[in-house]
Amino acid sequence: DTGVSQDPRHKITKRGQNVTFRCDPISEHNRLYWYRQTLGQGPEFLTYFQNEAQLEKSRLLSDRFSAERPKGSFSTLEIQRTEQGDSAMYLCASSLAVGANTEAFFGQGTRLTVV
Amino acid sequence: DQQVKQNSPSLRVQEGRISILNCDYTNSMFDYFLWYKKYPAEGPTFLISISSIKDKNEDGRFTVFLNKSAKHLSLHIVPSQPGDSAVYFCAASGGWGGSRLTFGEGTQLTVNP
Questions:
Q1: N or C: which end of chain B has fewer CB within 10 A?
Q2: Is B60 left (phi over 0), alpha (psi -120 to 50) or beta?
Q3: pLDDT in tens, B9-41
Q4: From the CA of B69, how many Å to the nearest CA of chain A?
């Protein structure tokens, strides 16, 4: 399967613990995005990378959140000192930046539950 | 500030009929618009897109119409099938946001057999 892959699919953690999610984009895609989706809402942008450079971060991304994309391939999203409000679906997407516009392809997401 | 809005949380249609999903946006800098379909516990799946230089794009049973003056777009599905039942998200990109997508709240489409 050559789609976007996310791991784990589900994560339950206790408040205050740290969690890390992984995303493997489509191999030839140079852009990688993280979004967060809560119930009844559309996905909200968190951050994106072009190759290994993190080019933009949303104000939703508090200092407890950090994302990396070493070597411009897979990416990790870490949440430190989790809070109940962090419970959401975390979605990764990738795209190939050629021309002005291009569609992003999403992974199946990581469902985080903070108890 | 909700820049992309889908005012209908849900829509029910009969199999074989047309489904019309609507989306409004406020940011005139958006220049690329997309529709995604989402099943429960899965990520969004890309359906169809349209650039602001066009007013219509077709792909099989799916057609997207763009009315820039009204800042409105719609997705038509003809004929609707029960397998089309899902949440449909409208998304937009461009302007200061660059390539990142701004999504609407979604519309739950149910196609009855």
A1: N
A2: left
A3: 999 999 999 999 999 999 999 999 999 999 988
A4: 21
